[in-house]
Amino acid sequence: MALFLLTYGYNDTDERAARREEHLAYLNKLKDEGALALAGPYEDLTGGAIVLNAEDQQAAEAIVAGDPYTKNGVTKDRYLRQWKVTVGSI
Fold first, then answer.
1. DSSP 8-state secondary structure symbol assigned to residue 89
2. Which CATH number does the domain housing residue 28 bear?
3. Please, is 14 exposed, middle or buried when counting C-beta atoms within 10 Å of its C-beta (0-12, 13-18, 19+)?
4. Per-residue pLDDT band at 90 (split at 50, 70, 90)
């Protein structure tokens, strides 16, 4: 397993509020399955970051594609890449 860091911004859409419960349920399911380490919005609520556990880039991309926020155009400027932690642990 490898760690992947996803950063993103939010589109100006009512879908964010409408899909929030689905998004949180999806993240909690990922956490229970061991595929999510950390997730949350930036303090100013302009976007957020998610740390995923996945086999490879393709698997991480599939996780992101399954998120209701991704499916419904809530997020923009998504940037997903493998992350090598040098100090600390999750």
1. -
2. 3.30.70.1060
3. exposed
4. confident
